């Protein structure tokens, strides 16, 4: 009798623990923050825009999609990120949930001054992921960037993260940078971080309006634009187009791209598209000074030949290889020179020196910015055209006969 | 003393799980920065030497646990006092591991659950295990060994396939010379986790085949040491030395970085699973050593009645030993190794061995003389 009593008492007691309801969060009580935008505040230090997914309206399926907008944006202010997030609870009925945050947008103004004050909150929070990507909103506020709607991907955040992935591998003027990468660059003496720029193009009045999406050509759209260069935690400059590509080349993130070369005196006559690119950066020392060697190796195919050229001749191919090598080398050299001008070691050469010669690095580290500006860098490119599509010679070849 | 008998393979598994326990979770050897893995291996070598001391002692008294032969070697009073010291040490270490376990869960996923709730769930499970006896714990070990290894191998494959490993982060080797590495090994990695093998002096008599003690225990230590060193190296190669030193739980950060094929990501749950398994065994073994020691020292016929009082001591101490995590870690890094681990794991066993050696030599000589 006593045993039955004890067992049933235990069962009741255990019930309260095993139900697992201590700190339960129902899906319907959570607001999934997809992106956060940081702007400079008027009274408070920051204005933070939270892009929250509206789950009912993004449900996938053939015709299951809802009618309303996929996202909602709330803006709140605070002197710290936590303060802003807590202030936001006055506007949002659900608990903000950061595990699925995929994008941090920072306005140019904040990037120039004050970005450091939000980083620790992002780094420390157990819910937030440091694999979240970070972008700088160019020529617009971060609020506008996170409020914009997109048409191919329902969730604007997905558009941005997917786009960065695609453009990194197809063009190589942007590269994915997450919070971890950014912080690693900030902390390291021998490396400065770069961050993608993002731009809201078109009519700003139309940002976040559903009727804009009814057009095939929306009036506003988002575009990856340039690489922001940081120095001592502050945005100092932008690298655009070929120069940005040069940076991405050195960082070994370019896979494919397009290289135009002149032929027969015609500019942009032949386009070579590499499909595999590999960059190796090494250091050697001469008279106690580091010299950086960059070896780029790529192979690809000819995607266009808009001139009279005999592509069946291996000698011609070899000549094209040489011209492509020259073009890539020039792009890379220009990026390096520009970075040296602003004394910002975005390539991480300092870290290479550190790894190769820790003793010398101790001497150089204090004055690395100036050392970097005068660093000798050799670039060697080996490019190989492997094939030329499904035509041998271009039609120009027969046309002029 | 309980009359438990376990197989050599079970002993081996217990050693591996015990050694890896919490050592894999916290940034072991973090003071040596990118050379952490070397500090771990150096610690392993020291730990193996230490184990030889414990093994010699065991050879002199193959049927007795530490608390009994302490009294044989140093006399009833001093031995009893030292035994009590060891029991308190085991309780305290169990407390620390329980706190580690609770802190990890409260900082990472159960952010608003009180520490004592998480800790009591764990300790209640362990008390049940202790109540059932050592053989049961050993069998549970066999069960979980496979699961832990499956997770570890899956984790390593996923990390390397995700392209997260940058071998160059392990360079420069010996950036600050060999001193920090040796210093870290002496101060930390020898004693934690390898010197903690002192707990097994309580369990060695349980092994059914005494010839296999060396193989099972040292094999287990080597395997665990290599695993910890690999983990340290992977952590550094994934996070870089700088983030590695800045992380409370580097392995958690490393696992959080896995992003594969757009859907294999956020695998923190692997870490949590390991945490619960590893925590269970480490606390259980310390706890059991304390229980067995007390039963032995105070001549309890039945050790089972001790599991509840000692369990509650561990539970309440785990909440009160430090008022915050920083204090807990600071004690673990600066106070424990110098004032507890070194004396109890290294100095006292060395003295014991010397005295035991002298006594036994006398013993051997007397019969031959007569």
Automatic annotation (TrEMBL), chain A:
Coiled coil: none
One Gene Ontology term from the biological process aspect of the record: spore germination
Keyword annotations: Germination, Lipoprotein, Membrane, Palmitate, Signal
UniProt-recorded name of the protein: Ger(X)C family spore germination protein
Domain Spore germination protein N-terminal: 23-195
Predominant location: membrane
Record's subcellular location: Membrane
Domain Spore germination GerAC-like C-terminal stretches: 225-389
Keyword presence, Lyase: no
One CC-aspect GO term: membrane
Membrane topology: Lipid-anchor
Organism: Neobacillus novalis
Family membership: Belongs to the GerABKC lipoprotein family.
From TrEMBL, chain B:
Source organism superkingdom: Bacteria
Assigned keywords, A-Z: Germination, Membrane, Transmembrane, Transmembrane helix, Transport
Topology term for the membrane: Multi-pass membrane protein
TM ranges: 12-30, 36-57, 77-95, 107-131, 143-165, 185-207, 219-241, 271-293, 305-326, 338-358
Pfam family, one: Spore_permease
Localisation per UniProt entry: Membrane
Family the UniProt entry places it in: Belongs to the amino acid-polyamine-organocation (APC) superfamily. Spore germination protein (SGP) (TC 2.A.3.9) family.
Annotated protein name in UniProt: GerAB/ArcD/ProY family transporter
